[in-house]
Amino acid sequence: MAENEDGQEKTEEATPKRQEEAREKGQVPRSKELTTMAMLLIASFALLMLGESMITQLGNIMSLGLDFEREKAFDHWAMLEVLQEGIYQGISLLLPFMLVMVITSIAAPAALGGWNFSTKALEFKFDKLNPLSGLKRIFAVRGLVELVKALAKFILIGSVGAWLLMGYFPELMGLGRESVEHALAHTGQILSHSFIVLSASLLVIAGIDVPFQLWEHSRNLKMTRQELKDENKNTEGKPEVKSRIRSMQREIAQRRMMSEVPKADVIITNPTHYAIALRYDAKTMAAPLVVAKGVELVASQIRTVAVANKVPLFEAPPLARALYYSTEIDQEVPAGLYLAVAQILAYVFQLKASVHGAPVPDRPGDIPVPEDYFQGPGHEKPADGDEQHPDSTTQGD
């Protein structure tokens, strides 16, 4: 089990933040065996495809340097031109092959750990020059693994090479009986096929090394429980700061809620413990809307704002508690409370109309609240003496 410097076991998987920090430092999974295998395999196929044209161009370069008029041998400028032409043809000969190898050398490492252009990975570190640190790396588990991989590669490639030699032995012995041109072509064919097979044999080593590198990278990034707690604390902030943020959010939400109270049509109260502000517009709303609610001090503030803005207060303890626990702010009244709320709103609208000469309506006596809404803390069914009072509606003036 991996441990940190304090001796604590690293049992927790790395968080995305830890992984991102490791990537910024250049700590990404890499497999040298994958890169080596890819480069050798691509090189073998590239030589197989470009080999014939490369040999032809190489022959032309040799002819250019050896087959020329006698006079040119004594002309320095003419020989310089021959040299320049030979260099140009040599570059043209190697450029396609080198371009393929450069692309492979860049793409192969990125296939495992992705692209990583971290500047921190290029920083010079003096501890890498420490001989003791080097010895620790050699005799560590990773050094042992590298030794095992080197031996495995030697045994594998040696075995495949011996198998190829035994298979091509009759053909190799027969090359001396062939013409020079045919023997050279035959030798090139044997070498290219052998190169491909030897390169492909490294797939076995890469297939073992890649999962090991991914596992080791994940193991090295593991965290202790304390590191995980510290990261969460730094990411989310200290408890005091989070508490302060939540307090400010509540204050902002409460101020926003209080600004909606003057727009309400009625405030249903308990009368002192609960206050729920309702608004209803038959043209734009399908059901009455709860625009504000609160208990104790918040309920008192809602009532104060309502009185200051002449919003009617209606005392209905069971309905107030039912609305408080069953409905959130900016949410419509549940269907089970439609009848109770409709009676109160009808009464309030008629009461407002009486100011302009309409008859004063009778206050609704029994406000029906289904028993389903008397569940949980504060939802007890009201006692006989806990019903609304006949004179418990005020106009807020």
Automatic annotation (TrEMBL):
Source species, domain of life: Bacteria
Membrane topology: Multi-pass membrane protein
A single GO cellular-component term on record: plasma membrane
Record keywords: Bacterial flagellum biogenesis, Bacterial flagellum protein export, Cell membrane, Cell projection, Cilium, Flagellum, Membrane, Protein transport, Transmembrane, Transmembrane helix, Transport
Compartment(s) where it occurs, according to its Swiss-Prot or TrEMBL record: Cell membrane
Transmembrane feature ranges: 34-55, 87-112, 150-170, 190-215
InterPro entries hit by this protein: FlhB, T3SS_substrate_exporter, T3SS_substrate_exporter_C
GO biological process annotation, one example: bacterial-type flagellum assembly
Protein family (similarity comment): Belongs to the type III secretion exporter family.
Protein's gene: flhB
Protein name: Flagellar biosynthetic protein FlhB
Taxonomic lineage from the root: Bacteria, Pseudomonadati, Pseudomonadota, Gammaproteobacteria, Chromatiales
Biased composition (Basic and acidic residues): 7-30, 378-390
Role description: Required for formation of the rod structure in the basal body of the flagellar apparatus. Together with FliI and FliH, may constitute the export apparatus of flagellin.
Coarse class of the protein's main subcellular location: membrane
Annotated region described as Disordered, given as residue ranges: 1-30, 360-397
